[in-house]
């Protein structure tokens, strides 16, 4: 899907005649036309002709309900590659639900979502093929060894048989899993299980990273390396979305912050933009202010102190 | 209070939490349900909001339906036998059927223990309580109670009552309504405590493989006794057996239900029931089911780099073989049904008929082995889906289609099934001194397994695939499971008469049809599983 000045085209090449028509009618200056691309590809030829905005994940009027509870309400969002997005929000705000919709695990109650031109719940395999996902829970086969599990994942993701061991070595090196390679996952600590899940997300070098609380449970060495790697992946033009409760991490790595509260999109923008909107100097202050949680924090302190 | 000395209330409370949590995780749904569906689900399926009594009532109703499903054909058979003047045939059929039903009930009890403990372990329900000051023994006792209050007793009681009523209809013996359900309850109340003692005394010290082999041999022994003394015996021998052993469980219940009241049989039946009541009241509050078996040590250095579907299949094979409860469930079901097909090979009379008649070859190859293998696949292959439990969410985050999952589970089930075709084919080759027949038996067992397995796995997956919940037996529910079984078996209702008709026209055409029908699927599966290697 692509659009030029809000006229949509289902198929990217179908847009070229419109562009040429525009060019024939006059000479568009860079920026006159806003081309929004939602499919992967090489668009350098168009650069200079138009203002190019590549939006590989587009969410419009998204609504998700579980029985009588609305987990997400009317969310509209554009996620561009090359930027690191941090999804913030208190517990139960809808962050995990949003990631699961992007992965095609949930079908929303209404609204539209396009991930690299694909509607995720209609063609989940296409989305999952190019996505590395770390779930919030440690759901993983406990009776397989680390090596068995990661090689199984590698084969599922279509990594050729001849390359499996090399990829395994690479991710096990990266996440320091070598000494645990032949241990049953059920015997590993929570931190090691998180590392296995991270290795699973990185093993096929995906173009989209959807990481749900990846910094929980891992030691500072891995956390430090992960922050650097995620920044690099974003710089390489990949799409990176991370959820976290740790505001210091969000402040340190986010190109864009998305703040969700009780299913509503409260704020989006760079850290500075969010701080400005909340008239705060720190993200923690902004978070509390935008989610109107100052009173709740005071109550919690009072309750715990007593 | 007296009740307090029999029940560990802390374990009982935890057990009800286990059951509620298992129901919640298995039924949790996204989106809004259609109102009618929601009504049906609320009425018939256990809900997390139900109390112990309510969901046991629902299991009881499910048991009634299952019992009706299992016994609905009996009145038709008995009436037609009487119409033809075959009075003894009807009686023998009932004796044979009820004996088999009681043995199956015993196997269901073991199956329930395996299902419940596997679900508790797979859903990691006890880990939530690990951080609380609850002793391990209490958690194990809670898992033990879960089998009883999670629906085990009510389900078997429902099945027993339905079969009892049908037995009464055909025998005019009102005692059947009392004794058949009592026999089913006695099964769970006697066998369950005995299983707890066995597991406690020797179960945990045995390796997975040894424990599995012992279990399979016990199931095979029980079925062999049935086949020898009831299934293959002459009418006179059956009557003699049932009369001589009318005080022995479960024949006492069969005797009083079919042949009328007999003081010693009735007294024995009541005694077994009372003994079961005492054992069930005392043993589960003292012994629990070993739940927390931590896998220690390291595994072998193994990389699953086979063709894509085979990598998935081997993953399932390792998971099932490393799971004590699920492996027993899978192999126990197969052993229970395949033993009656193997035992006749040791009977000279049957062996003679098989070896001299061309007709028996057809029956032998297809009806006994092909058909049986098909039914076995329908019953046992879904275990590989239910063993996923909460790990089904892993399948949801990987680029897998319903086809990938169904085919890989089919391959896994085929690998796990192999000991049986190999054993039976070797046995046939040895007993008939004919390697070709042995080879055909091996082929039939495998090809019809593939046919039955693929239909069932697709049907079960259709019920599970779109839900974002754990895949357990609860997710599908007993009614849907019965419908799946009925639909999966229904092709045989058309196929068997066609093949039998062919037999009357030309035996070789019938044999060819039997051998060729499943071949395209088997060959197609093997080619596809090796050829398709990309996402």
Sum this structure up briefly.
Chain A has 306 residues and is an alpha/beta fold. In chain A, 37% of the residues lie in helices and 24% in strands.
The unreliable regions of chain A are: 23-33
Order of helices and strands of chain A: EEHEEEEEHEHEHHHEHEHEEHHH
Radius of gyration of chain B: 24 Å
The residue-averaged pLDDT of chain A reads: 83
Provide the low-confidence segments of chain B as ranges.
none
The main sheet of chain A orders its strands as 9-10-11-7-12-13
Instruction: Determine the strand fraction of chain B and express it as a percent band.
Output: under 5%
Terminal Cα separation of chain B, in Å?
64 Å
Mean pLDDT of chain B: 83
Structure description:
The complex is a heterodimer of chains A (306) and B (535). Chain A is of the alpha/beta class. Chain A has helices at 15-25, 95-102, 124-129, 146-156, 161-174, 190-202, 220-235, 247-253, 271-278, 283-290, 294-305, and strands at 2-4, 7-9, 34-37, 51-54, 57-66, 69-79, 84-88, 110-115, 131-134, 208-212, 239-243, 256-261, 264-269. In chain A, the strands form 3 sheets. Chain A has a 6-stranded mixed beta sheet, sandwiched between helices. A 4-stranded mixed beta sheet of chain A has the order 2-1-3-4, covered by helices on one side. A 3-stranded antiparallel beta sheet of chain A has the order 6-5-8, with helices on one face. In chain A, strand 5 (57-66) and strand 6 (69-79) form a beta hairpin. Chain A is globular and about 55 Å long. By secondary structure, chain B is mainly α. Chain B has 2 domains: 50-289, no CATH class; 305-535, no CATH class. Chain B has helices spanning 2-6, 9-27, 35-44, 52-71, 73-83, 87-122, 127-130, 136-171, 175-201, 208-231, 235-244, 251-258, 263-282, 308-321, 324-342, 348-356, 358-380, 383-386, 392-397, 402-417, 419-432, 435-464, 473-476, 478-505, 507-516, 519-531. The model of chain B has no long low-confidence stretch (mean pLDDT 83). Chain A binds chain B through residues 64-67, 100, 103, 105-107, 109, 124-126, 128-129, 133, 135, 137, 139-145, 147-148, 151-158, 160-161, 164-165, 168, 181-184, 186-187, and chain B through 29-33, 294-296, 298-308, 311-312, 315, 318-319, 322-323, 390-391, 393-394, 396-401, 468, 533-535.
């Amino acid at each position: 899907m692509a659009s030029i000045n809000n006229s949509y085209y289902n198929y990217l090449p179908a847009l070229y005649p419109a562009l040429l028509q525009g060019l024939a009618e006059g000479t568009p200056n860079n920026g006159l036309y806003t081309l929004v691309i939602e499919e992967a590809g090489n668009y350098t030829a168009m650069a200079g002709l138009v203002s190019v905005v590549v939006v590989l994940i587009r969410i419009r009027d998204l609504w998700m309900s579980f029985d009588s509870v609305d987990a997400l309400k009317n969310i509209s969002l554009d996620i561009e590659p090359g930027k690191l997005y941090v999804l913030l929000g208190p517990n139960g705000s809808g962050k995990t639900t949003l990631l699961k919709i992007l992965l095609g695990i949930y079908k929303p109650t209404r609204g539209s979502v396009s991930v690299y031109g694909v509607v995720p719940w209609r063609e989940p395999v296409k989305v999952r093929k190019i996505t590395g996902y770390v779930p919030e829970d440690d759901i993983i086969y406990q009776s397989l060894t680390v090596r068995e599990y990661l090689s199984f994942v590698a084969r599922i993701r279509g990594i050729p048989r001849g390359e499996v061991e090399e990829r395994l070595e690479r991710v096990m090196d990266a996440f320091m899993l070598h000494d645990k390679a032949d241990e049953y996952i059920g015997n590993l600590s929570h931190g090691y299980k998180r590392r296995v899940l991270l290795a699973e997300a990185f093993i096929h070098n995906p173009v989209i990273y959807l990481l749900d609380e990846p910094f929980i449970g891992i030691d500072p060495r891995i956390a430090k390396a992960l922050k650097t790697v995620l920044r690099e992946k974003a710089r390489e033009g990949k799409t990176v979305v991370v959820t976290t409760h740790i505001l210091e991490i969000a402040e340190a790595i986010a190109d864009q912050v998305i703040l969700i509260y009780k299913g509503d999109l409260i704020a989006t923008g760079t850290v500075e933009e969010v701080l400005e909107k909340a008239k705060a100097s720190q993200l923690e202050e902004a978070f509390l202010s935008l989610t109107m949680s100052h009173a709740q924090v005071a109550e919690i302190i009072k309750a715990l102190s007593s | 209070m007296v009740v307090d000395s029999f029940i560990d209330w802390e374990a009982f409370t935890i057990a009800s939490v286990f059951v509620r949590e298992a129901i919640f995780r298995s039924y949790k749904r996204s989106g809004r349900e259609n109102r009618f569906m929601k009504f049906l689900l609320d009425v018939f399926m256990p809900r997390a909001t139900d109390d112990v009594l309510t969901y046991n009532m629902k299991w009881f109703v499910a048991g009634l339906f299952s019992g009706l499903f299992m016994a609905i054909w009996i009145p038709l058979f008995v009436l037609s036998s009487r119409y033809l003047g075959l009075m003894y045939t009807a009686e023998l059929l009932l004796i044979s059927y009820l004996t088999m039903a009681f043995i199956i009930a015993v196997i269901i009890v073991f199956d329930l223990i395996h299902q419940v403990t596997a679900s508790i372990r797979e859903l990691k329900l006890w880990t939530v309580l690990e951080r609380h000051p609850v002793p391990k023994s209490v958690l194990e006792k809670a898992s033990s109670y879960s089998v009883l209050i999670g629906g085990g007793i009510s389900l078997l009681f429902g099945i027993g009552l339905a079969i009892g009523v049908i037995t009464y209809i055909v025998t005019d013996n009102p005692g059947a309504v009392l004794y058949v359900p009592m026999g089913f309850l006695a099964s769970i109340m006697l066998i369950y405590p005995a299983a707890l003692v066995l597991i406690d005394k020797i179960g945990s010290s045995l390796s997975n493989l040894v424990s599995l082999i012992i279990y399979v041999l016990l199931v095979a022994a029980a079925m062999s006794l049935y086949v020898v003394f009831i299934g293959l015996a002459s009418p006179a021998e059956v009557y003699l057996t049932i009369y001589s052993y009318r005080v022995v469980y479960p024949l006492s219940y069969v005797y009083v239900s079919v042949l009328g009241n007999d003081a010693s049989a009735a007294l024995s039946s009541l005694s077994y029931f009372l003994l079961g009541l005492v054992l069930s009241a005392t043993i589960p509050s003292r012994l629990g089911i070993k739940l927390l078996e931590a896998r220690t040590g390291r595994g072998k250095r193994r990389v699953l780099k086979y063709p894509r579907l085979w990598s998935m299949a081997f993953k399932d094979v390792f998971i099932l073989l490393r799971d004590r409860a699920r492996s027993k469930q899978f192999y126990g079901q197969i052993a229970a049904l395949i033993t009656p097909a193997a035992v006749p090979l040791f009977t000279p009379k049957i062996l003679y008929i098989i070896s001299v008649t061309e007709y028996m070859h057809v029956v032998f190859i297809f009806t006994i082995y092909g058909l049986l293998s098909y039914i076995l696949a329908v019953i046992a292959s879904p275990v590989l889906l239910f063993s996923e439990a909460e790990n089904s969410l892993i399948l949801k985050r990987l680029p897998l289609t319903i086809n990938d999952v169904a085919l890989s589970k089919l391959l896994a089930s085929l690998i796990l099934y192999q000991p049986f075709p190999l054993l039976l084919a070797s046995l046939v080759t040895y007993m008939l001194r004919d390697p070709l027949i042995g080879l055909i038996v091996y082929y039939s067992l495998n090809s019809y397994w593939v046919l039955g397995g693929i239909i069932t796995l697709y049907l079960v997956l259709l019920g599970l695939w779109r839900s974002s919940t754990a895949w357990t037996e609860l997710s599908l529910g007993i009614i849907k499971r019965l419908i799946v079984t009925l639909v999966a078996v229904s092709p045989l209702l058309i196929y068997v008469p066609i093949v039998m008709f062919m037999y009357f026209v030309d035996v070789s055409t019938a044999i060819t049809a039997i051998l060729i029908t499943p071949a395209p699927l088997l060959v197609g599966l093997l080619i596809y599983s090796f050829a398709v290697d990309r996402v």
